[in-house]
């Protein structure tokens, strides 16, 4: 499959096709060493950019190397990923025209407090590379934290009650 790397409006560099690609075509493998998630976290602790791809239940990742690592995220992708026997393949979801940038939905599911902002520019952009479920989960957690913070402030700001005289005239 003839692919090239060049500048991308989505993020720095992107992977483009030099010829048309038919729907449901296996395009390229996401290659690189398979390492533990713990090793990846250690290795990229201070790095704002990684090319990690989670495998299976997330215990192992591919430390991306090759053409596929340049395929950018889009909320309206033209490709998808499929894991087959520990290998990850990028396949077309639709017919792709020559010169078109290849994209897939990263559907991120972890990343601590990283906003993972999306720059895809699609009409249905969700403004994040996190999966829709992860976005909902984070929104619920933020609401709970805000409610807890508000309750704590309210408790601290409560004025002391007036003392009442007991008995007597």
From TrEMBL:
The keyword Chloroplast does not apply. GO terms for cellular component: chromosome. Residues 160-169 have a biased composition (Basic residues). GO terms for molecular function: methyltransferase activity. Pfam families: SET. Residues 114-130 form the Post-SET domain. Residues 1-107 form the SET domain. Keywords: Chromosome, Methyltransferase, S-adenosyl-L-methionine, Transferase. Transmembrane segments: none annotated. The keyword Methyltransferase applies. Gene3D superfamilies: SET domain. One of its GO terms (biological process) is methylation. Residues 136-169 are annotated as: Disordered. InterPro entries: Post-SET_dom, SET2_Histone-Lys_MeTrsfase, SET_dom, SET_dom_sf. It is found in: Chromosome. This is SET domain-containing protein-lysine N-methyltransferase.
